[in-house]
Amino acid sequence: MPETETLGRPVRQKRPGGRTADVTRRIHEAVLELLVEGGIDACTFQNIANRAGVERSTLYRRSPDRWTTIIDAIIEFARRETAIHDTGSFRGDLAATLHNLAKVLNDPLGPALITVTAALQGGAAPGQGERFWASRMERLGPTFERAVARGELSADADQEEIFSMAAGPIYFRRLIASKPIRDAWVEKVADEICKRYRPKA
After folding, report:
1. 69 - beta bridge partners?
2. Is residue 167 within 8 Å of residue 98, measured between CB atoms?
3. Residue 100 to residues 83, 110, 121, 170: CA-CA distances in angstroms?
4. Which of 5, 12, 130, 165 has its CA 20 to 30 A from that of 46?
């Protein structure tokens, strides 16, 4: 922890975030661990609190229900694992993003996240699925903006459609066809998407 001097005596200063940031991190980690170990049913406020080492009242003060806590953890996980890439081309940025997605789906957490998605589609927590998707598209925004500025995508390109078309084959191959996602497959998908959405001369 950084120190400054006052009248010759060091004074300890609080770190940015401090205890609140640490508690948030522990809660998010607890959610992800429980999802892998026991799925959605394991993610009760009591189990999350026990795993994170906090009081259950802490969770109630932060979120109205467990679904908000679950989605908060997934959004933060996606933020960490899907860093914004600037490779100098849309094709490079897209391929890097898809490689990150493949890495997540190949991880034990991947199938657990899909069960969450399925539950949301089934109406388990109205609005939470939309909240996650909106955060995902907002994070990808700079990738599309750079591509438009470089002339690699048209100004009216449908960003949601493009990402859906790109990510769809990755999800299908891993979760439906149950096949491993090889690097060569990801590169092929990126090539096809760029070819499909290349601006017409």
Report:
1. none
2. yes
3. 8, 12, 24, 11
4. 130
Residues 36, 40: Cα–Cα separation, whole Å:
9
- Cα–Cα distance measured from residue 35 to residue 94, given in angstroms and rounded to the nearest whole number: 28
> How high does pLDDT run on average in the chain?
88
CA 110 vs CA 45, 105, 140, 159, 171: distances in Å: 22, 4, 20, 24, 10
Cα separations in angstroms, 90 against 11, 149, 150, 158, 160: 49, 10, 9, 14, 15
Q: How far is CA 48 from CA 24, 65, 122, 191, in A?
A: 12, 12, 23, 42
pTM of the full structure: 0.80
Cross-strand partners of 3: 12
Helices (H), 16-127: 18-38, 45-52, 56-62, 66-81, 90-106, 109-121
